[in-house]
Amino acid sequence: MSLSEPRPVTHLGPGALSGEGDRRPWSSEGRPAATVEQVLAVAHRGASARAPENTLAAVRLAADLGADAVEVDLQRTRDGALVLLHDAGLGRTTDAATRLRGRGPWSVGSLTLAEVRRLDAGSWKSPEFAGEAVPTLAETLAVVGARAGLRLLVELKLPERHPGIVADLAAELTRAHATGVVDLSRVVVQSFDVAAVKELKARCPRLVVGVLGLPPREHLPALGTWAGQVNPHHAALDAGYVEAVHANGMRCLTWTVDHRFAMRRALRAGVDGVITNRPDVFLRQR
User: Fold this and answer.
1) Are β-strands 69-76 and 40-44 bridged in parallel, bridged antiparallel, or unpaired?
2) pLDDT of 24-54, one tens digit each?
3) Active-site amino acid positions
4) Cα–Cα distance between 58 and 212 in angstroms, integer?
5) What interhelical angle do 239-247 and 260-269 show, nearest 10?
6) How does pLDDT run across 180-223, given as a tens digit for each residue?
7) Strand-strand pairing, 229-231 and 69-76
8) How do the domains of the chain map onto residue ranges?
9) Do 145 and 130 touch, CB atoms closer than 8 A?
10) What are residue 127's DSSP bridge partners?
């Protein structure tokens, strides 16, 4: 997710909304949150206000701060490794401009995993994180799986730039579940690309998937036949929309909520989770 203006839902082509299968919402109770205390604190890109985003340091810090879940962004390297990264390029959050001088724009899809792993993904945030690497999804699943009760929300970024990434992700998640690394009930995958998450649901029926953005209310009944979440930008939602999401059997998490006023507004709207760079601040508001 980006901190810029809300994006519309994309790829709502024929058949994109309807579907079948297990769409269990992201909770052991299988129902929307009923009280403020049940609203999930979801650390956006990890505890990214205090640690470098989309790193294991940020994931671990989020867990230490008491976050219920961690949100991360997923892309793929040239040789097919699934890694955590928000931007298409590595320039903002690594030392690629120095280490890979002359090879810009340093897109993750143009580099191998070995090349990406040599980059420093921590120093840009603070010297204390020097040497922090861009993590793989497998490493992240292992960290989350080792933290009792911690959940993982994965945003599939720009799947159209990574042909076959949906199949790769389904295989990775299935393997992690089968080997006991992490139970699929603790993982949700979301995207602005409705077709991509619908395909993922078909490939991995036990997985809960979510749609990012603000689908029209008339689309919610069809989405509710296969999706478990609808997750809009906090400025775009109101209590009526959240109620409509709930009425169609889905949960509603909102992003990216960093200011106390916006946190209180989201709670009043009845959301099931708040995605924030500052999970510690939200936990004091909850």
Assistant:
1) parallel
2) 445 434 445 545 568 999 999 999 999 999 9
3) 44, 86
4) 22
5) 40
6) 999 999 999 999 999 999 999 999 999 999 999 999 999 999 99
7) unpaired
8) 36-71+144-285
9) no
10) none
pLDDT digits (tens, 9 = 90+) for 214-252: 999 999 999 999 999 999 999 999 999 999 999 999 999
The CA–CA distances, whole Å, from 3 to 86, 257, 277 equal 11, 10, 11
201 neighbors 224 (Cβ within 8 angstroms): no
- Phi/psi for 21 (5° steps) reads 120, 175
The CA distance from 42 to 5, in Å, is: 20
Name the amino acid, one letter, at 203. Answer: R
Sign of torsion, CA 154 8 13 238? positive
Give backbone dihedrals phi and psi of 96, rounded to 5 degrees, phi first: -60, -35
Tens digit of each residue's pLDDT (9 = 90 or more) over 139-169: 999 999 999 999 999 999 999 999 999 999 9
> Cis peptide before 105, with omega less than 30 degrees from 0?
yes
- The correct answer on CATH 3.20.20.190 for the domain covering 36-71+144-285 is yes
The structure tokens listed for 27 are 């909770």
Amino acid identity at 32: P
Contacts for 268 with CB less than 8 Å, ≥ 6 apart: 239
pTM: 0.91
Residues of the chain with pLDDT > 70: what percent? 87
